Amino acid sequence: MSFADELGAWPRARVIDAIECARPEDVEAALMRSPRKINDLCALLSPHAQAFLEPMAHEARRLTRWHFGRTIGMYVPLYISNICGADCVYCGYAVRSGNKEKRLNLNSDEIRTECATLAAEGFQNVLLLTGEARRAAPVEYIAEAVAIAREFFPSVSVEVYALEEDEYRLLCQRGLEGVTLYMETYDQTIYKAVHVKGEKTNYGYRLAAIERAGRAGARRLNIGALLGLGDWRVDGFWTALHARYLQKACWQSAVSVSFPRLLHTPARFAIPHLVTEAELVQLMLALRLFLPEAGFNLSTRERAGFRDHLIPLGITMMSAGSSTRPGGYASHISETLEQFAIEDRRPPAEVAQAIRAKGYEPVWKDFDYAFDEAPGAQGQAHNHMGELRT
Ligand code: SF4
Measured in angstroms, how far is the CA atom of residue 161 from the centroid of ligand 1? Predict the structure, then answer.
């Protein structure tokens, strides 16, 4: 059964019904059960679960420490292109966003310079991003960027337009480890309304893309819904369903979930279902209890104090010191267009310190890669670890 089939068995009305029918005793039962079932997830996402956030947080902390220890992985996004032919109405890169700042691809030298700057800050895990521009930023360009990034980082992931399986395979051959691909919303009606131009309008093609990446050999698969487009409880449910499906279908890959929350959008788009911080906490706790082995990523979209508060509640990876424009770290390319404004502007070392203050260890390098075949990157990894910890 494909994920599209599985999703088809859970239409919006059924999900809402299952969540609304949950009673307080169902939440209590969900807290006690292991492993948790779909009905437990519905109970934990329900309004009644708001009265149980304390025990949910306690269980989330326990599960996260059991599976991941007291560590938070550090990563950094690197935008290599801001050219985009799609029109996603919530995005600053959209072709009709009205934004006029410069759009470009970084060239090889610029990518190297950005990578060197980030590696010198200690990062060993980088996420390369583009818009949707198959002609301006073709797969070969992305593959070259992956190969360059591998000169500096043991772990390279991409967040780019949806690809064919062979294209993902090409990136893996150049050293790619992970793929991030957000469905944005699993609600087909909303999806159609907010994606009005470009390949991304093809809902089914995007829905199946992350599984293609897994089949092609990507060892880390990261999904998420853009919180604010639809009802967070319903999109949260579908995201959890997708993650559990991928854990089985792509069992050789580690599956993780991100929680990107819309806070800043272009002037033409008002956020239809603004998600509060309390709601985001409930979503994260519910998903942690349902998906104890999934990594949870948190970006700098959220404000510093809130990010710090979330550290013990299930987060396993955090970005830091982020820029959402090409050349934003070292290339000094003036006024390139940024995708969205970030909230947490602390430098990486300060974020690392905040993690330590919570009793967790910031991890810059995944030690799996001590055995990887990129000796140059390994050497640098150890050097940067040394620099940071002295
Ligand atoms: S979300 Fe991605 S595809 Fe859509 S406009 Fe933004 S960069 Fe382009």
Answer: 8
Domain of 338? 56-389
102 found inside a domain: yes
CA 355/CA 193 separation, integer angstroms: 39
Domains contained in the chain, number = 1
Q: Which residues contact 368 (CB under 8 A, 6 or more apart)?
A: none
- Which residue's CA lies nearest to atom 4 of ligand 1? 88
Token pair 């059991």 is at which residue? Answer: 66
Residue 86 tokens read as 């799609």
Q: What are phi and psi of 19, to 5 degrees?
A: -75, -40
Is the CB of residue 110 less than 8 Å from the CB of residue 355? no
- Closest ligand 1 atom number to CA of residue 200: 3
Relative to the CA of 130, which ligand 1 atom is closest? 7
The pTM for the full model equals 0.93
CATH number of the domain at 179, please.
3.20.20.70
CA–centroid distance, 318 to ligand 1, in Å, is 22
Is the beta carbon of 315 within 6 A of some atom in ligand 1? no
Q: List, for residues 220-276, the tens digit of each pLDDT value.
A: 999 999 999 999 999 999 999 999 999 999 999 999 999 999 999 999 999 999 999
Phi, psi of 207 (to 5 degrees): -55, -35
Q: Is the CB of 84 under 6 A from ligand 1?
A: yes
Q: What is the pairing mode between strands 254-258 and 361-363?
A: unpaired
